[in-house]
């Protein structure tokens, strides 16, 4: 039996584009014809859950054959005040949903909250591929590394880099698996070339030091957010009769494709062949 390849979206910094990237990866994989599961570990905010609901509602009017849907499961944080009990409860609910989805889907996309919590750590420890979107600013880089203001030398790894280090240990202990960690830049603007260059320099160096692959992500584009309420993404645009495909839409679609390529995900057929 094959198991789904697990892609986790994580970053301790809020608002970096985890949920946006999750939605676009889910739909890009669905559009390639794969079965996709999704889990929302930030069920309180529930961005991915809301998106899945919007998309399901849309599929009712458009027809499910024209709008492929993920099998989506939100996992809420435990309401128990007792921390030990809450951990047991969260682990139990996470693992039940996780096992079901990896056994029945080709890919599983897990969206985490923008803060450190038990559910998020569980998600990270189950990742095959970890994608960390990063806003194009030194303010956001801070969770990855502390950088000297004048020399731009890396002084020490940041809090989130330590969390990933810990998750890699957990993953190795659990099943000797490894996590392929990818840092992608998000909301890149055409302006501010100097900041872009300096971020580039630091990220290149940091990638070797703390072990991630560094890829270009998404530019700042309205199309990455404006279809949210309709439950669509730019990968569905041909389906949305009201939308006109503009140059910026085509460019955005290309960015999603390039990200998918850069992730170098295993193809489920290949997994099937090697399993048999
Ligand atoms: N490439 C982009 N272009 C334009 N807007 C974007 C882009 N990426 C994200 N956004 C917008 O930025 C905001 C934050 O994005 P998102 O909710 O995906 O981040 P997040 O990391 O999931 O946040 P949180 O930590 O709160 O869960 C949203 O309003 C989203 O629409
Ligand atoms: Mg989010």
Task: Outline the fold blueprint.
Blueprint: E1 5-9, H1 18-31, E2 36-40, H2 47-62, E3 71-74, H3 83-104, E4 107-111, H4 118-125, E5 129-135, H5 138-141, E6 145-147, E7 154-157, H6 159-175, E8 180-186, H7 193-210, E9 213-215, H8 223-226, H9 247-263, H10 268-275
Parallel strand pairs: 1-4, 1-5, 2-3, 2-4, 5-8, 8-9
Antiparallel strand pairs: 6-7
Helix pairs in contact: 3-4, 4-6
The structure holds adenosine-5'-triphosphate and magnesium ion (MG).
Please summarize what this structure is.
By secondary structure, the chain is of the alpha/beta class. The chain has helices spanning 18-31, 47-62, 83-104, 118-125, 138-141, 159-175, 193-210, 223-226, 247-263, 268-275, and strands at 5-9, 36-40, 71-74, 107-111, 129-135, 145-147, 154-157, 180-186, 213-215. The protein has one domain: P-loop containing nucleotide triphosphate hydrolases (Rossmann fold, 3-Layer(aba) Sandwich).
Index terms:
two-stranded antiparallel ribbon; 9 strands; binds magnesium ion; Rossmann fold; alpha/beta; globular; 276 residues; binds adenosine-5'-triphosphate; 7-stranded parallel beta sheet
């Amino acid at each position: 039996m094959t198991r789904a390849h697990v892609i986790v979206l994580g970053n301790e910094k809020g608002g970096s584009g985890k949920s946006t990237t999750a939605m676009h990866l889910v739909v890009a994989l669905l559009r390639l014809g794969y079965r996709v599961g999704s889990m929302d570990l930030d069920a309180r905010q529930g961005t991915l859950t809301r998106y899945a609901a919007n998309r399901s509602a849309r599929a009712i009017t458009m027809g499910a054959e024209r709008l492929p849907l993920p099998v989506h499961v939100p996992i809420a944080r435990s309401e128990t005040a007792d921390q030990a009990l809450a951990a047991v409860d969260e682990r139990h609910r996470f693992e039940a949903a996780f096992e079901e989805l990896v056994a029945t889907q080709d890919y599983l996309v897990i969206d985490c909250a923008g803060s450190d919590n038990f559910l998020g750590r569980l998600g990270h420890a189950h990742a095959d591929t970890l994608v960390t979107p990063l806003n194009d600013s030194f303010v956001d880089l801070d969770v990855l590394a502390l950088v000297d203001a004048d020399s731009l030398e890396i002084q020490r790894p940041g809090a989130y880099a330590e969390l990933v280090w810990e998750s890699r240990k957990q993953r190795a202990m659990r099943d000797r698996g490894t996590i392929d960690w990818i840092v992608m830049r998000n909301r890149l603007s055409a302006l501010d070339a100097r900041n872009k260059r300096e971020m580039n320099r630091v990220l290149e160096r940091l990638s070797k030091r703390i072990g991630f692959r560094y890829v270009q992500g998404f530019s700042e584009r309205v199309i990455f957010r404006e279809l949210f309420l309709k439950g669509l993404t730019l990968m569905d645009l041909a389906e949305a009769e009201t939308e006109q495909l503009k140059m910026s839409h085509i460019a955005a679609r290309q960015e999603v494709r390039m990200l998918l390529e850069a992730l170098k995900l295993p193809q489920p057929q290949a997994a099937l062949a090697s399993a048999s």
